[in-house]
Amino acid sequence: MHIVLNNNLSLEEAHHISEICEKKIKKEFSEINDVLIHMESKEGLNDKIKYK
Fold first, then answer.
1. Taking a C-beta distance cutoff of 8 angstroms, is the pair 40, 5 a contact?
2. d(CA 44, CA 5)
3. Which pLDDT band holds residue 49 (cuts at 50, 70, 90)?
4. What is the torsional sign of CA 7, 9, 11, 17?
5. Which helix (H) or strand (E) holds 28?
6. Where are the beta strands (DSSP E) in 1-52?
7. Which of 13, 38, 51, 52 could form a disulfide with 9 if both were Cys (CB 3.0 to 4.6 A apart)?
8. What is the C-alpha to C-alpha distance for residues 13 and 49, in angstroms, rounded to an integer?
9. In this structure, are residues 47 and 28 in contact, taking their beta carbons and an 8 Å threshold?
10. What is the pLDDT of the chain when averaged over all its residues?
């Protein structure tokens, strides 16, 4: 899973959000045992977007 987070979040806050996401996914889909979450800041995402 790829999530985009606010640039102003601390590393601790970002990890907390990813843990919440992982728990919700596992609760909703009991057959899922492992969730890989890639966290990225909005700033980093904007560098990859090419506007036409």
1. yes
2. 10
3. low
4. negative
5. helix 11-28
6. 2-5, 38-41
7. 13
8. 25
9. no
10. 85
Q: For residue 37, which of 52, 12, 20 has the smallest C-alpha distance? A: 20
Burial grade of 37 (CB within 10 A; 0-12, 13-18, 19 or more) = middle
The one-letter code for the residue type at 24 is K
The encoded tokens of residue 39 equal 């966290």
Q: Is the pLDDT of residue 51 over 80?
A: no
Q: Residue for token digits 């909703």?
A: 28
pLDDT tens-digit profile of 21-45?
Answer: 999 999 999 999 999 999 988 776 6
The position carrying tokens 């889909």 is 29
Written as six digits, the tokens of 36 are 């890989």
